[in-house]
Structure formats: structure tokens, C-alpha cells
Amino acid sequence: MDPVFSIGISSLWDELRHMPAGGVWWFNVDRHEDAISLANQTIASQAETAHVAVISMDSDPAKIFQLDDSQGPEKMKLFSMLNHEKGLYYLARDLQCSIDPHNYLFILVCANNAWQNIPAERLRSWLDKMNKWSRLNHCSLLVIR
User: Which Pfam families match (predicted)?
Assistant: First the structure.
């Protein structure tokens, strides 16, 4: 059975808070600090046995993402990527070189200006490809921008 991951906002209804494996979810936040906070809350709300990986643009993920000793997964994988359009196109390939994505929750925390120079049609195409990839690999991608 495919896992169901939870967004770290407990006040949301279950229907809005649960992310079944096999899809892409997107959150826009106003500040980078809010993106980090949401990512850490989402990490903490996962089951102890959950497979979680966090990808950070232009920052050291070990300095901003933490595991909570009292809740959340036992461990998580940390990745960083450049704030560059080509980094998005190679994201799935790069992740598969490091881990088996099956049943993983991937959290991509974007830099503030990550999408400003990417035309909408290319971004939409990337999202479609990532959605197909996540369904094929039974994993979830949460993009926090």
C-alpha cells in the first residue's frame, strides 16, 4: 500500500492535509523563513518509518532542516541544488542517482527568486513531468515556494 504523507498544518481538514504517494503539491508562502518552518513542520508530522528527503535551493540543508526527536521520521536525506532552471530539469534524475524514490516524500524548498525567469509554459511542462515521475515511482513531491 502506498503511503499517505501529511502536510505540517494540523488545523487543515484531513482531505487538504493528506498527500497520497504519486503526486505533486505546491505551497506558496510569503517569506523564506515560512517555507523553512512549513518544511520542518511537515517533516515532524510524518510517521517514524516514513522516507523523507529535503531539497534546498542555494542553502545548506543541514543548517535549516532538523529532525524532531519526539516525532517524525527516524532519518531523512538532505540534498541541495543550485537556483537554476536546469537544476529543475535534472532533479528527478539526480534524485534517482542517490536513492530509490519509491514511497518517498520529497520536499523542495525553493529560493525566493527561483521561478522569476522561467516562462510559465516551461514551468507547467516541468510540473507535468514531475507529476508523471512521482506517479511512476509512487512518491510525492511537495514544492514550497
Answer: CBP_BcsE
